[in-house]
């Protein structure tokens, strides 16, 4: 229990920083009337993508294959299977953006491949988060002192500090579908999108008795 006057304020901080990671997805597809043919083509195309990614292993931070789908296509009025569809998706994450556009286009040139992304982000342990939280605390302290000074008082102690959240908006994506009909490789320059980092805190300070005139 605090005896004496208390001031409650909200501290905020906002920064735009360069992204540290870029992620994109590579989806390989296959379709045929025969199920085994569909699976064989899907495996062959996925292997071709894997070989290409293996050749770029030093530029890739992480890759995860997380979505495999095989489904039948049936006629509307019956359960007769007229074709089989297969797809497998791999997520690729890189931190070196110099060859990102070229890598995405090389993947998109593969037969029956769709490339989507990139999604720009910061690392989970990025120093930017710590810096913006510290700035939000400094803002709360400055506001508390300003309110106290306006009352002819001064801040004497911190009673409570609560984190009210950090926002990281999602970024838009691009998509490129490849295949034998895609033609020659175009030039693609990607501009990393700045990441917005915001922090807010609520602080309660004990202050000396106000001087009201």
Automatic annotation (TrEMBL):
Membrane spanning residue stretches: none
Gene3D superfamilies on file: Protein of unknown function (DUF541), domain 1 (3.30.110.170), Protein of unknown function (DUF541), domain 2 (3.30.70.2970)
InterPro entries (UniProt xref): 26kDa_periplasmic_antigen (IPR052022), SIMPL/DUF541 (IPR007497)
Superkingdom per UniProt: Bacteria
Any single GO BP term: DNA damage response
Leader sequence segment: none
PANTHER family membership: PERIPLASMIC IMMUNOGENIC PROTEIN (PTHR34387:SF1), SLR1258 PROTEIN (PTHR34387)
Protein name according to UniProt: DUF541 domain-containing protein
Organism this protein belongs to: Micromonospora avicenniae
Top-level taxonomy: Bacteria, Bacillati, Actinomycetota, Actinomycetes, Micromonosporales
């Amino acid at each position: 229990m605090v005896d004496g006057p208390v001031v409650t304020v909200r501290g905020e901080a906002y920064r735009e920083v360069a992204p540290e990671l870029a992620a994109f997805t590579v989806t390989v597809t296959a379709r045929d009337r025969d199920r085994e043919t569909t699976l064989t083509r899907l495996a062959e195309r996925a292997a071709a993508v894997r070989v290409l990614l293996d050749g770029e292993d030093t530029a890739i931070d992480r890759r995860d294959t997380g979505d495999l789908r095989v489904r039948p296509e049936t006629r509307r009025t019956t359960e007769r299977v007229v074709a089989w569809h297969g797809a497998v998706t791999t997520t690729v994450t890189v931190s070196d953006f110099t060859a990102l556009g070229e890598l995405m286009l090389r993947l998109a040139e593969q037969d029956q491949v769709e490339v989507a992304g990139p999604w720009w982000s910061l690392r989970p342990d990025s120093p930017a988060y710590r810096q913006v939280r510290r700035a939000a605390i400094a803002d709360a302290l400055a506001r508390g002192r300003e309110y106290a000074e306006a009352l002819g008082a001064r801040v004497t102690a911190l009673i409570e500090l609560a984190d009210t959240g950090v926002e990281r908006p999602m970024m838009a994506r691009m998509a490129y579908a490849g295949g034998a009909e895609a033609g020659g490789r175009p030039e693609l320059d990607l501009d990393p999108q700045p990441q917005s980092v915001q922090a807010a805190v609520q602080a309660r300070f004990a202050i000396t008795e106000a001087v009201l005139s």
